[in-house]
Give the backbone structure.
Amino acid sequence: MADTLIVGGGSAGSVLAERLSADPAHSVRLLEAGPLWTSTETVPAELLDAAVLPIGPEVEWLWRYPVTLADDPPVPASIVRGKVIGGSGAVNGCYFVRATAADFAAWSRRLGGCAEWSFDAVLPVYRRIERDSDFGEQPWHSSSGPIPVQRSAVPSSVSAAFTAACLAAGFAEVPDLNAPTAGDGVGAVPCNCYQGRRISSALGYLLPALDRPNLNVAGGTYVTRIRFDGSRAVGVDYVRDGELGTEWADRIVLSAGAIESAALLLRSGIGDPDRLRALGIPVVHAAGVGTGFSDHLEIGLDYVLDADYASDAAESPAVALESVLEVGDIEIRPYAMSFTPGVRRLGVGLMRPHSSGVLRLRTADPADAPVLEHHYLTEERDRARLRAAVPIAAGLLRRMNARPLASIPERGDLDAWLYANLDTLQHLSGTCRMGLENDPAAVVDERCRVYGVTGLSIVDLSVVPVPLGRGPQATVLMIAEKAAAYLAT
Ligand SMILES: Cc1cc2nc3c(=O)[nH]c(=O)nc-3n(C[C@H](O)[C@H](O)[C@H](O)COP(=O)(O)OP(=O)(O)OC[C@H]3O[C@@H](n4cnc5c(N)ncnc54)[C@H](O)[C@@H]3O)c2cc1C
């Protein structure tokens, strides 16, 4: 029986398993639903190549979910998550930007001013993760952590043209988007890649630790339910190769990601009591699981480049996104790779949306994917921010001599246009939020322990209590590093 059983070997779970098993006296069991590769040499080339997103319709290492992004008119879509050791970090875009001081000020406020999640408290943890080859010597960086971080040395011509357009439009240049003082402006995206390889936390943390005798990892193992003895979590049920089984542990940690950790809690009886009873699930504890999640939304401006950039089609950028423009809670993203041949995309990301989503179970059957409703654009504040931001992006396209595929209305019914071009950045967070015990929306405490039960923690993007102003990957690794320190004491 393990001291700690971790469900999910994704971005957070891989960090946690390595950190906890660094103590030889502590035994760690990690169960991952997707395949486990035990060395970099055996990882499929597609997963290593930082220049492609390995999320095509043919690949098997994904969870796929139908979602409803908006309600009126309905905008159906489909999202994916990594179902593989390394999780979504094994299939993602390698953008590795830290959340901002303002995000942690908001996070701390949700905890009544608790300093544990202040920017000063998390900065050393962000540093511990990285090996930054551009700014490693700066006091806010490190050059010795497990995850290599670098920016494109020679940006593709589309990224260079975007940066030039931003500067010509009067935006500042931000040399280091991960500097604590980085404000608005255009800058090169720090990426977790090295020599063209995507370095997930599985590669940077977990795989080098696999020969530890106190670390035991199983792939192909789908955890279906948490077992409780009264209100104490004591084990999990799983399916492996079609066989059902149970494993017991002193402590269970869910690192199954913001969708599956929440679904597991609900299936195990932690959630809204009325809904659980309606599905025939015995209630263990009442909690606001799945309500009020956040996800970065994107408005996509598709365009083609004029003749002077035509040669760009032959370029192969090192990563999907080499530069971004930050304008408050808006992130403008000039994708360096084409998702449709000949067509490029400039994304307008709303990073701190006020509209929030809901995750709920369809049935109690673990084989049924949960229902995900984003409720994007329900808040007028969000629509107003985008109405103001889209013309900025359109102006940058004009400066790049790019031609939008569809005309962007200057005024009038811009809202209908927003709905027609609505997408998601797939950064879903906050399904099991951290907060004070008297906060009805809080599911975990400031040390990631689930309220109302013992022996159960959540360590992944589920716990983030506020929208983050930047993409979540660097932050989910930071959460896991920080939680590992709590769980080790
Ligand atoms: C296509 C794509 C591109 C992205 N690009 C970026 C980017 O460039 N930059 C950025 O900042 N963010 C990006 N993101 C988001 C970011 O990668 C994720 O938010 C982050 O990796 C989530 O980490 P996590 O540990 O919470 O979950 P995950 O990394 O998803 O890990 C969850 C793990 O748990 C396993 N699991 C789930 N359920 C079970 C179960 N019941 N039993 C056993 N195992 C289970 C899964 O298989 C998975 O391995 C992207 C996401 C996607 C999908």
